[in-house]
């Protein structure tokens, strides 16, 4: 009898254990959550199946799509993101490093350019200014006429003519929200909405069979003349493409002869647009078009570039300055820099750029990494030149100020991209660790939720610090003389208290 009592007392002791009670509570709550969520999901499916037609009738311009993923799919997605984050993190360093080198190279280019730039008369081409950086002001002109025959538009004395096409159509918009499941998986609920809007491109409505858009019958066009003069000079195509002083010219359309487009047969002028539906008061319907024209007229311009014959070429960063003229690094200082000495250099300014040399295909993993770094380096060092045109008459100081501001914006954007590559890469990698806790029932979702905030905060702090260190090291590498002076000054400041105590003892 005593033996039986002792045998029965052991289970009672186990049941009273706090750890065992906690385990039983977690298992029971997890089971209840699974059952309740299953019934809720089953009930929502039944409700959707029974009331789907009613919902569509109430709001035919939206519907919801639900996709369920398991816990292993969620972890797999985070792992893929971590791999992509590692790539971003690695290549964020060469972007920041190359950008700091660009800052130094462009500062040197501006210094050389300001020392040799001269203001010349645009009404006469002086041979003595060959291979010189010139600043000239004048009036742009062209004898060509740009024409859009469909709408009877002729643009004279204009550099560019552009046609904008917009169609009234269904635009599909989606909003996705995720909901955690008890087992660690996720439920993605995507709501698609359809709105009628004017859009310049053909919008695809892949998730609906009732919101179908017609094909875009016309396309937008951009025409550019082949010859523009700046008084006695010829403006090259690259500078012509930089002229962007657009002005509307839709009202200059005389006739609408687009009879091959049915929706334009009843078109008319509606404000700044040529719009279909003039017979119904321009009330838009799906498939209606509206057209808008603008052009870049000729007028006063200012150019800053290297004179070559009667046209202009860019002053590249790698070009040296010899006796007030640009020259390649191989040109001797005492060589005659007349026409024979600069034709080969200025006819093809890209030939001497070391950043545009061909890259050999990689054969190893290290070679692939170096190849990618060189590609990023080439991308960052693109357009290191002075080749500017402004559609207004500006002084030499004003146009240099404009060029420097544009370059500062480019450098700022590249630096921002490098920092974001580091921060986003670290965030993607750190986010993988909290995602592993999703396999823990019930509590894993909450651990991941708070872990994502920790990962984001850590990525911002560590990414910013690594970016600042990289930029600082690149600054020291690009400016060795200044770096040495700065380090000496910092060393003296740090050693000043010790030196004062050693050589200037305190007096009582």
Offer a few descriptive terms:
disordered N terminus, alpha+beta, seven-stranded mixed β-sheet, eight-stranded antiparallel β-sheet, 10 helices, 45% helix, 21 strands, 508 residues
Descriptive report:
The protein is of the alpha+beta class and 508 residues long. Helices cover 45% and strands 23% of the residues. The chain is built from ten helices and 21 strands. The protein has helices at residues 2-15, 18-58, 71-116, 237-240, 339-347, 365-380, 396-430, 432-435, 444-478, 480-503, and strands spanning 62-69, 118-119, 133-141, 145-148, 153-156, 158-180, 186-199, 221-224, 228-230, 233-235, 247-248, 268-270, 273-275, 289-297, 300-308, 311-313, 315-316, 320-322, 325-327, 385-386, 388-390. The strands form five sheets. Strands 1, 6, 7, 8, 11, 12, 13 and 14 form an eight-stranded antiparallel beta sheet that branches. Strands 2, 3, 9, 10, 15, 16 and 21 form a seven-stranded mixed beta sheet that branches. The protein has a two-stranded antiparallel ribbon with strand order 4-5. Strand 18 and strand 19 (325-327) form a beta hairpin. It is flat. Mean pLDDT is 79; it is low at 1-16, 33-59 and 330-341.
Summarize the structure.
The strands form five sheets. Strands 1, 6, 7, 8, 11, 12, 13 and 14 form an eight-stranded antiparallel beta sheet that branches. Strands 2, 3, 9, 10, 15, 16 and 21 form a seven-stranded mixed beta sheet that branches. A two-stranded antiparallel ribbon has the order 4-5. The chain has 508 residues and is an alpha+beta fold.
């Amino acid at each position: 009898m005593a033996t039986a009592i002792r045998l029965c007392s052991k289970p009672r002791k186990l049941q009273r254990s706090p750890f065992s009670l906690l385990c039983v509570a977690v298992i029971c709550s997890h089971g209840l959550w699974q059952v309740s969520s299953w019934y809720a999901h089953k009930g929502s499916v039944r409700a959707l199946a029974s009331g789907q037609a009613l919902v569509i009738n109430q709001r035919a311009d939206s519907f919801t799509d639900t996709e369920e993923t398991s816990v292993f799919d969620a972890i797999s997605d985070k792992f893929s993101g971590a791999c992509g984050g590692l790539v971003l993190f690695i290549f964020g360093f060469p972007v920041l490093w190359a950008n700091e080198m660009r800052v130094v190279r462009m500062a040197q280019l501006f210094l050389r350019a300001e020392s040799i730039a001269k203001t010349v008369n645009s009404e006469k081409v002086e041979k003595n200014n060959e291979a010189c950086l010139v600043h000239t002001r004048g009036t742009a002109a062209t004898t060509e006429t740009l024409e859009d025959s469909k709408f009877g538009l002729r643009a004279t004395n204009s550099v560019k003519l552009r046609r904008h096409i917009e169609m009234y159509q269904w635009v599909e918009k989606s909003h996705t929200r995720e909901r955690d499941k008890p087992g660690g998986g996720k439920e993605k609920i995507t709501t698609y909405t359809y709105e009628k809007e004017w859009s310049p491109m053909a919008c695809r409505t892949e998730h609906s069979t009732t919101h179908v858009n017609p094909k875009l019958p016309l396309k937008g066009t951009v025409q550019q003349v082949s010859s523009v003069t700046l008084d006695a000079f010829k403006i090259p195509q690259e500078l012509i493409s930089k002229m962007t002083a657009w002005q509307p010219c839709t009202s200059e359309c005389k006739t609408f002869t687009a009879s091959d487009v049915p929706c334009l047969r009843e078109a008319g002028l509606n404000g700044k647009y040529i719009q279909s539906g003039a017979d119904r008061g321009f009330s838009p319907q799906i498939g209606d078009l509206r057209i808008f024209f603008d052009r870049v007229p000729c007028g006063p311009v200012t150019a800053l570039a290297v004179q070559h014959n009667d046209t202009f070429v860019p002053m590249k960063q790698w070009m040296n300055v010899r006796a007030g003229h640009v020259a390649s690094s191989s040109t001797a200082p005492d060589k005659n820099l007349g026409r024979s000495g600069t034709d080969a250099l200025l006819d093809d300014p890209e030939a001497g750029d070391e950043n545009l040399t061909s890259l050999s295909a990689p054969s190893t993993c290290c070679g692939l990494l170096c190849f990618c770094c060189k590609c990023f380096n080439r991308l960052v060092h693109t357009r290191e030149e002075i080749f500017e045109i402004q559609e207004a008459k500006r002084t030499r100081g004003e146009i240099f100020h404009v060029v420097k501001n544009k370059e500062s914006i480019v450098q700022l954007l590249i630096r921002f991209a490098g920092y974001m590559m580091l921060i986003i890469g670290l965030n993607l990698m750190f986010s993988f660790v909290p995602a592993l806790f999703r396999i823990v029932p019930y509590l894993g979702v909450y651990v991941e939720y708070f872990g994502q905030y920790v990962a984001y905060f850590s990525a911002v702090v560590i990414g910013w610090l690594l970016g600042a260190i990289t930029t600082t090291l690149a600054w020291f590498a690009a400016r060795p003389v200044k770096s040495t002076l700065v380090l000496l000054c910092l060393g003296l400041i740090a050693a000043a208290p010790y030196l004062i105590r050693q050589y200037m003892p305190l007096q009582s």
